[in-house]
């Protein structure tokens, strides 16, 4: 059995988890501690980097201790210390990385410096034991990409956003409609009772041959409609949310369909269509992607909600995947604010 501690501090979640793989290669999440800083940032309507870094410092040690305790293991029993070394807010990344390096030095364990995006990309193998290759829609507050995942460390980016990330678009939509932060869950909740057809919102990039995204025009169109009918009653907000979410769903499905066509040229036949990142928590997007996968005769895989958003288990798992291949780092591993897949 191999056991790794995973540490995540790249954005506004402080997380520590323990994941093991048994001799048959079967993984188990033995502890998965996540502390969200949402309350600290909510008053500002977005993540404030300096506040985030300080909050990570305050809680990370305790969170790691709690993860070890929950898993019933000790530092000395671990086979590696994995940490998200980027991409993300540099202050937070440094907190996690310095902590991981210190633990690795003191306990004499291998350090595994994991790419946060790679961890999202590999989560479907932890939860569903997927084989390579698969098509991944990675959509979070900071990232939106369609990627052919061919192996650990072997990713082909088929398309991405040329402006806002999908999660960011949800967050901005929520803010301009006076809803809370983070915006995705709020918009989804409001959209439930709304009429998606009352407002004619654009579907940017629909039909384009490259599976890229553009979301800033949709956000602007939403703002114009909201201003036109202001002041907004609850009914109006619900209809605007429903219209916005329906537009995003249409764009996502069109872009994913194009990416599926392009996939064969780079990676052959995919084993599945996978959604990851915080936006994969959206029920409407999940349902539409599942239907698209069904049409293409593919399985659809999306991690359970607690593993869609940022967490330590995905970092520990990516660490285990790298450890298996001997991809170990040392004390000089840099913190990377930018780190493309
Ligand atoms: O992966 P994640 O937890 O953090 C990073 O950005 O790395 O993703 C957070 C993002 C936020 O923008 C949030 O609004 C969005 O995911 N999100 C959603 C939903 N839940 C979270 N977007 C749409 N619908 C949701 N239900
Ligand atoms: Zn993330």
From TrEMBL:
- Cofactor binding mode and count: Binds 1 Fe(2+) ion per subunit.
What GO annotations for molecular function exist for this entry? tRNA N(6)-L-threonylcarbamoyladenine synthase activity
Reactions this protein catalyses: L-threonylcarbamoyladenylate + adenosine(37) in tRNA = N(6)-L-threonylcarbamoyladenosine(37) in tRNA + AMP + H(+)
Pfam families xrefs: TsaD (PF00814)
Where does this one sit in the cell?
Cytoplasm
Q: Which UniProt keywords apply?
A: Acyltransferase, Cytoplasm, Iron, Metal-binding, Transferase, tRNA processing
The record places domain Gcp-like at 29-317
The cofactors it requires, by name, are: Fe(2+)
Q: What class of enzyme is it?
A: transferase
Ligand binding (Fe cation): 116, 120, 310
UniProt binding sites for substrate: 138-142, 171, 184, 188, 282
Would you say which domain of life the source belongs to? Bacteria
Q: What does this protein do?
A: Required for the formation of a threonylcarbamoyl group on adenosine at position 37 (t(6)A37) in tRNAs that read codons beginning with adenine. Is involved in the transfer of the threonylcarbamoyl moiety of threonylcarbamoyl-AMP (TC-AMP) to the N6 group of A37, together with TsaE and TsaB. TsaD likely plays a direct catalytic role in this reaction.
Q: Which HAMAP family match?
A: TsaD
Q: Which family does it belong to?
A: Belongs to the KAE1 / TsaD family.
The name of this protein is tRNA N6-adenosine threonylcarbamoyltransferase
Which species does this protein come from?
Methylobacterium komagatae
């Amino acid at each position: 059995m191999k056991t790794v501690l995973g540490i995540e501090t790249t954005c506004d979640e402080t997380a520590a988890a323990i994941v093991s793989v048994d001799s048959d290669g079967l993984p188990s999440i033995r502890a998965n501690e996540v502390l969200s800083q949402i309350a600290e940032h909510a008053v500002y309507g977005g993540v404030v980097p300096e506040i985030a870094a300080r909050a990570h410092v305050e809680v990370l040690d305790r969170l790691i201790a709690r993860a070890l305790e929950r898993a019933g293991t000790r530092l000395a029993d671990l086979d590696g210390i994995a940490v998200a070394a980027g991409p993300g807010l540099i202050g937070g990344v440094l907190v996690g990385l310095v902590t991981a390096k210190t633990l690795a030095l003191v306990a004499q364990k291998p350090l595994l410096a994991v790419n946060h995006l790679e961890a999202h990309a590999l989560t479907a193998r932890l939860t569903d034991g997927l084989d390579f290759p698969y098509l991944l829609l990675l959509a979070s507050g900071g990232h939106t990409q369609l990627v052919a995942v061919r192996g650990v460390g072997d990713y082909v980016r088929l398309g991405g956003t040329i402006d806002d990330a999908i999660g960011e678009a949800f967050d901005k939509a929520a803010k301009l409609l006076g809803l809370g932060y983070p915006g995705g869950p709020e918009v989804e909740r409001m959209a439930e009772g709304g009429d998606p057809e009352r407002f004619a919102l654009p579907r940017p990039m629909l039909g384009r041959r490259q599976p890229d995204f553009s979301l800033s025009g949709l956000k602007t169109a939403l703002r114009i409609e909201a201003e036109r009918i202001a002041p907004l009653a609850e009914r109006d907000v619900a209809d605007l949310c429903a219209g916005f979410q329906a537009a995003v769903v249409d764009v996502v499905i069109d872009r994913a369909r194009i990416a599926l066509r392009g996939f064969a040229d780079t990676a052959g036949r995919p084993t599945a269509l996978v959604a990851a990142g915080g936006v994969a928590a959206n029920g409407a997007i999940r349902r539409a992607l599942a239907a698209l996968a069904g049409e293409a005769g593919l399985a659809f895989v999306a991690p359970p909600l607690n593993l869609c958003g940022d967490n330590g288990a995905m970092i520990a798992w990516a660490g285990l995947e790298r450890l298996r291949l001997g991809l170990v780092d040392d004390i000089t591993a840099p913190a990377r604010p930018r780190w493309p897949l």
